[in-house]
Design goal:
The complex is a heterodimer of chains A (about 290) and B (about 700). With about 290 residues, chain A is mostly helical. Chain A has a single domain, classed as MetI-like (MetI-like fold), CATH 1.10.3720.10. Helix content of chain A is about 70%, strand content about 0%. Chain A contains 12 helices and no strands. In chain A, helix 4 (about 85-115) packs antiparallel against helix 5 (about 115-130) and helix 7 packs antiparallel against helix 10 (about 205-230). Chain B has 24 helices and 24 strands. In chain B, a hairpin with a 2-residue loop joins strand 21 (about 565-570) and strand 22. The chains are: A mainly alpha (about 290), B alpha/beta (about 700).
């Protein structure tokens, strides 16, 4: 007679359980819908838009009407069409920058968390030093030095976010390395890189994923901020931040409601994208924390 | 027991409780009925998942949000708890019922001084603040806290676990409740501390005539503490009766099986294998039309699967819910007892592993913490060296030093007479393969993101150099040797039960053909039936492969079952080292004597409880002379305080660190009858029914 008879395998694997929780989370679904809409627009926005976002006309600064639901801007371009097609640049730069930050931050965080000791001290102080300088100052300085292009923008934002990601990963790694399976791996003659990336990394992937979505939200803001300051996306792109940057001075005009439509609609678009990303982050966090 | 006029302290009638999981109600308690008279102590035992804690929660209506009482009634002192309004319930909880939980550390507020928390028990009932503090001081005195004034000014983290539990007991008893519910109150505590807390509870219970519902998985503790006991299985009370009767004449196959799993009465691995209970607890919410235990029962007939057995009264309050209660003792064994093939240990040759004068000093917050001091011991091939001692005695540190995970401050380790490097990274492949470990908690010891196959294949590749089909066939061989079905290879550890996880961990330790496996409390997180199966497995592997074990445990019955020799650690020093039988039978080192007397046993009696004074001293400020003198009940005098006794061989193979001459210790052993009187009782394990 065998000692191990009936099979008490838990029916639901943990991964399926997380997915099930996600699909039941209203927060997550709403976030996915909003972000999904803007991703769709980034690819096909120009096609669904009623007008060409770059074509100028003589109907400048007309308010919302049936012809132009979001009105027109200073060059007579249709604001609705520009909003619909303005997601492209930010949705290219921000996710790539986030990817750079996540890759860099994971390597740095895992290394300092797993090695501890002197390596950790050095890395942590460098991280602290970078975090002490405002993001915009580092970014603007670098962009001026290297010249603004999509590639440099991705690189600069990625590098600036790396220390922030590394802190999260380091904290998760510190807790994880105390677990017995890490000792067990050492007793199996595993080397440090294997233990860090194959044993520990899968177990800290939850915090890494949540961090990635949160960082994506910030990256969108940062891209928008730098574009607004003139260091990011360049004209004549219909980028939302660029639209705001081009028109915000008109808000001081009181007679025509400050031509609000030129600023409010692109602004709302940025806000909705960031809110959508953060809703996804919240949903993920709840599902992974259960 | 109960006075005729007063209603019983607690009465449950046909209590059905269900938890709603994934939109379906799953029954957790099935018609549980029992009664606790005034001043009575009632034990509730059963393995994990059988509903013990749910009873405790239901009684005070603390069920989680998805739990509900579907039928039945709960009366506390004659009041129907289920019918109470919010306000009345609050009053009831404040005045009539108290609870003490397993983990005292989380039950106290870490940011409040102890005095304030205890006083809170009184202020919440309308006592003025100043008077409340006064009464808090008295309450702490009642639980034998020597210096209540200073304890009141401390924060919970500044108290030891035993002290924290005393504080909680003081709070629970402060208002003299009718009913005290204790849910595994001593499970996290060391044996000597546990014994003190249990003594205290028993004494206070007698003093205040409090009724107690005592929940525990430890039958020894129940035997010591309770007049009557109920055995819970899959949410049904399967047997009930006076504790002595139930434990010595069990009439339900589950109780019979449970008792057979426990190594006791001095059984040892060469006496035979432990019995276990076949199969697994039915999963939550399974429909069980017949007897809840039928699927795992060796006596089950068709009637057991179709008809729920009634509670058969067996006289003097003993009752069993089994169709064949009169034949329960004939329950066939799941595992045949006879077991051959365990060769005697040959100590004439050189030892496999020898520790020479190992010392480890940790530096913590500017203090030196002496974790190990001059530990020397050897293990021969095929031998099991048991290691016992309370927490903080250095057991785990010793294991880690041997493995090379922690570097010793002094001393050395030899394998086959060759000095081992102290750092794991510098050891050769053969040396790493030779020493492996099975950790206490398989949840943290197995990577939860890797499948069982990946965990084991990787180890075979790194330690046995096997890949491809050679590795796969070796894997299947190993897995079948621990009786783990192939289909578990594709799942992740999280999807396995605790016992199966521990089997995976054992396979991993054996993948590289180790010479010595360190077992660090490998069964302490498991239920007794699973523990029995794991212990059997370890013995089989030892017989098959002549592997040696260093077996660390606080469960003396388990250590005795498995060990050839036993070492007793106290504050990082070996106090006694000798053949298992001698260490248990005496003459004892005074510390060993106290440790043995502290463990509550099912058979009870036998040993005079030796009360150790005070708490284990901190390893940062070790006592002078013999480190045990501060708590020793046999202290000779000044010599113990000034001179550290050496560890000397007092008789053949028996080493001891004590100033008291061996003749005198032997005399204590005889005159005080601490000699194990249970030895006469035939170990139940070798008797194989049918």
């Amino acid at each position: 007679m065998s000692a191990v008879a009936a099979p008490p395998i838990v029916a639901h694997s943990p991964r399926a359980e997380t997915l099930r929780l996600l699909l039941r989370s209203k927060t997550f679904i709403l976030g996915v819908l909003i972000v999904g809409f803007w991703i769709f627009c980034a690819f096909f926005g120009a096609m669904v838009a009623p007008h060409d976002p770059l074509v100028q006309s003589l109907d400048i600064l007309t308010g919302p009407s049936s012809q132009h639901p979001f009105g027109t801007d200073t060059l007579g371009r249709d604001v609705l069409s520009r909003v619909l097609s303005g997601a492209r640049d930010v949705l290219l730069v921000a996710p790539l920058a986030t990817l750079v930050a996540i890759l860099g931050g994971t390597v740095v965080g895992l290394t300092s968390g797993y090695m501890r000791g002197a390596a950790d001290d050095v890395i942590s102080r460098v991280v602290d030093a970078v975090l002490a300088i405002p993001v915009v100052i580092i970014a603007v300085t670098t962009l001026v030095a290297l010249g603004s292009s999509t590639l440099t923008l991705v690189f600069v934002i990625g590098v600036v976010f790396t220390p922030i990601v590394s802190r999260t990963v380091r904290a998760a790694t510190l807790a994880e390395r105390e677990l017995d399976y890490v000792q067990a791996a050492r007793l199996g003659r595993e080397r440090a890189p294997y233990i860090m990336f194959r044993e520990i990394l899968p177990n800290v992937s939850g915090p890494v994923i949540v961090e990635a979505t949160v960082r994506l939200g910030y990256a969108i803001f940062t891209v928008a901020g730098l574009t607004y300051l003139g260091f990011g996306v360049q004209p004549p792109s219909p980028d939302w931040a660029l639209q705001i940057s081009e028109h915000y001075t008109l808000l001081s005009d009181t007679t025509n409601l400050g031509y609000y439509w030129t600023v409010v609609f692109p602004g709302a678009a940025i806000a909705s994208l960031v809110v959508g990303v953060n809703l996804i982050a919240d949903g993920l966090q709840q599902a992974l924390d259960r | 027991m109960s006075a005729p006029e007063a209603p019983p302290a607690l009465e449950l009638r046909d209590l059905d409780v269900a938890y709603r999981v994934r939109g379906r109600d799953r029954q957790v308690l099935r018609g549980v009925s029992f009664m606790i008279g005034r001043g009575e102590s009632y034990g509730l035992v059963g393995e994990s998942g059988c509903g013990k804690s749910t009873v405790a929660l239901a009684v005070v209506r603390y069920l989680p949000g998805n739990g509900c009482v579907r039928a039945g009634s709960i009366d506390i002192a004659g009041r129907d708890v289920l019918a109470l309004s919010r306000g009345e319930l609050r009053r009831l909880r404040a005045e009539s019922v108290s609870m003490v939980y397993q983990n005292p550390g989380t039950a106290l507020n870490p940011s409040m001084r102890v005095g304030q928390q205890v006083a809170g028990v009184f202020t919440v009932r309308g006592v003025a603040h100043k008077e409340a503090l006064e009464r808090a001081r008295d309450a702490l005195g009642t639980v034998q806290i020597a210096d209540p004034g200073s304890v009141m000014n401390r924060y919970p983290h500044q108290l030891s676990g035993g002290m924290q539990q005393r504080v909680l007991i003081a709070m629970a008893l402060a208002w003299h409740p009718t009913l005290l519910i204790l849910d595994e109150p001593t499970t996290g505590l060391d044996a000597t501390v546990e014994a003190e807390v249990l003594d205290l509870i028993a004494q206070l219970q007698a003093q205040f005539r409090t009724s107690v519902l005592f929940i525990s998985h430890n039958l020894g503790v129940i035997a010591k503490m309770c007049e009557r006991v109920g055995v819970l299985y899959a949410g049904r009370l399967v047997e009930e009766g006076p504790t002595d009767v139930v434990l010595h004449d069990p009439r339900h196959p589950y109780t019979v099986g449970l008792l057979r799993c426990i190594p006791r009465g001095g059984v040892r691995k060469d006496h035979g294998r432990l019995d276990t209970i076949a199969g697994f607890l039915p999963s939550l919410g399974t429909e069980l039309p017949g007897c809840v235990f039928a699927d795992r029962c060796g006596l089950a007939k068709d009637v057991c699967r179709s008809d729920e057995p009634p509670l058969h009264g067996l006289g003097s309050g003993h009752a069993s819910r089994c169709h064949f209660h009169d034949r329960a003792a004939e329950l066939p064994r799941v595992i045949a007892a006879d077991f051959e093939g365990l060769a005697a240990v040959d100590r004439s040759g050189p030892p496999l592993l020898a520790a020479e004068n190992l010392t480890k000093v940790f530096r913590q917050h500017g203090h030196d913490v002496y974790a190990l001091t001059g530990v020397s011991a050897a293990i021969w091939p095929g031998e099991t060296l048991g290691l016992v001692g309370e927490s903080g005695s250095g057991k785990t540190t010793l294991a880690r030093v041997l493995l090379g995970i922690v570097e010793p401050t002094g001393g050395e380790v030899e394998l086959d007479g060759q000095k081992l490097r102290s750092r794991l990274a510098q050891r050769s492949e053969d040396e790493v393969r030779a020493l492996q470990i099975v950790f206490q908690n398989p949840d943290s010891a197995l990577n939860r993101r890797h499948t069982v196959r990946r965990i084991l294949r990787r180890r075979l590749k790194k330690l046995a150099g096997l890949t491809g089909s050679a590795a796969e066939s070796r894997l299947l061989e190993l897995v079948s040797s621990v009786r783990l079905a192939d289909r578990y290879l594709t799942v992740r550890p999280e999807q396995l039960s605790g016992g199966l996880k521990q089997r995976v961990a054992i396979v991993r330790a054996f993948a590289g053909e180790p010479r010595l496996v360190i077992c660090d409390e490998p069964t302490s997180a498991l239920d007794v039936s699973v523990q029995a199966a794991i212990l059997n497995l370890l013995v089989e592997l030892q017989a098959e492969r002549r592997v040696s074990y260093l077996f660390i445990s606080h469960d003396l019955g388990v250590v005795r079952y498995l060990s050839d020799r036993i070492g007793v650690l106290y504050l990082g020093r070996l106090m006694e080292l000798g053949p298992a039988e001698v260490v248990f039978e005496g003459p004892h080192h005074p510390y060993t004597e106290a440790l043995l007397s502290a463990v509550p046993t099912i058979d009870g009696g036998g040993r005079q409880r030796i009360k150790l004074e005070g708490e284990i001293p901190s390893a940062a400020t070790l006592p002078s002379g013999c480190v045990f003198h501060t708590r020793c009940h046999r202290k000779l005098g000044v010599v113990c305080e000034t001179e550290e006794p050496p560890l000397v061989e007092v008789e053949q193979g028996h080493l001891m660190r004590c100033h008291i001459p061996i003749e005198q210790l032997r005399a204590f052993n005889v005159t005080e009858g601490t000699n194990d009187s249970r030895k006469a009782a035939q170990p139940s394990i070798v008797r194989s029914p049918s």
